[in-house]
Amino acid sequence: MSEIPGTASGVVWQSSPPGSIYDYIKVASFSIGPDGLVDQWSRRAADLFGLTAEQVRGKDPVEAFLPAELRLRGHRKVAEILDGKEWTGLVPFRAPGGRRAHGLAEIYVMPSEARDGRQAALCIVVDVRALRRIESDLASSQAIFGQSPFGFLLFGTDLTVQRANRRFAAVFGGEAEQHRGRTVHDYLPRAEAEHLDAALRRVLESGESVTDLQVSGTVPGGGGERRHWSVNLYRVHGGSGRPIGVAGVGTDVTRRQIAAREAASARRNLALLNEAGARIGNSLDLETTARELLDVAVPGFCDLASVDLYQALLTGEEAPPGQFGPAHESYGGGSADLRRVAFASAVSDAPLAASTGGTPPVALGEVHRYPFNSACATALRTAAVRALPEGEGGLVQSALAVPMVAHDTVVGLVQFARAKGSEPFGERDRALAVELAARAAVCIDNARLYRREHERALILQRSLLPPGDPEAAGLDIACRYLPGTTATEVGGDWFDVIELPGHRTALVVGDVMGRGLRAAVAMGELRTAVRTLALLDLEPAEVLSALDEIARGLGGPGTRAQVRRSGAAGP
User: Fold this and answer.
1) Which terminus of the chain has a lower count of CB atoms within 10 Å, N or C?
2) Residue 152 falls within a domain, yes or no?
3) Residue 447 neighbours by CB under 8 Å, 6+ apart
């Protein structure tokens, strides 16, 4: 019976609920009258000993139940009890003619008074086998509960903590008993606590277990580090099958989460590198290559990014200011002019000229300089990646300044940034940022070298062609040199007008197979040879024959000289 306050009289008597301790421990009772004979016999005593009240009442319990060798001692104990002494002990018993053959009972005997005031005794009997089972179950439960390497909580039907083990208390602080009465909101952030609370209610109501429920939070003394747990929940029932709460077992899976995150990051980085290899460098245009880099990086790697190239590189100067020696000391000191050639953002409210990490906003196409002591200037001077402070307005929480290095030359700077809410850059991310910038830098430097060779070849070719409109006595000559495409702009095609003795004029059109500087040089050599041979006053056939011999020794693989058309004209 239990007392429950809250009624008009203040107390209500209520039977113990099913599943209480008395369902596990079968407590029996009987009484011994002043004459030493059984006076009252409970139904549970009948179940325990296998004898009815009619079979036992009025008999000497010592003679009826104890083995012969214990009866003398039993009579002495009964006499002592009837003299007013209490006694507790284990008593073997037998039930002649009953359903039970032999057993062992734990009996607590206390003095009482009969109706006439004489001394009597009340005996409380518990079957020792039931006690031993409970003791064994308790010991096993305590061993599992107390020695478990996992955190364990037992929630009541009101979802407050009824019990916590030492492992849980070691993580969240205090003694295990101090956690009684708390809720999940005392341990987890609001969103995580509501998620776990909803799961607890579902388990309590439906009886369906929940496995591997992922929750995260911080613990006291953990330095604010976020921890991750895998939680299993199952409903707990009493002896009668009535739900009495929910048990939760939590396993710290922080290391597993970190390993999984690193593996996912490695796979993502590999995929980004593969994509970079396929998409960056498809054009020989410097600014297009810079945009291709950002197309790969945003949003797959970062939220905002920009590319600055040295202005000298873009204007075609011979020595770019970013060249550095073995000591990695920048030739330009990090203060040379740069131009913002590309900018990309996956943040909808980021302005076009947004700062990507602690630097003044720079508009696309703007020529600018970084302050000497800034992280960006340091990255350019040392050719090493540098972390940048938060960006303007709190938009950026993590940013990197990565120099673009190719063939010991710094050609520019890439800034990668992640906005608030994204995961900050780690060491793996820094390595990937350097690799992405290096791949783009090689492509940009190759484009620079190609453009330089192209311009030199173009200058050479134009210098070797006849200047202006050729003039010849007695002839009106008109000419136009027009390449088929930009790719064939620099090649070995040429024309010439040569005045010969006897008022004659030679018109020559030739072609050296191939493109570039080598073809232009071969064209110049052949043009000189044609002029020399023509001035010897040879016949056109003889000039061509000699020219063919000369062409065989010119050029190299991929360069083949051929005189396509020649002729001579006179007045």
Assistant:
1) N
2) yes
3) 283, 284, 285, 286, 289
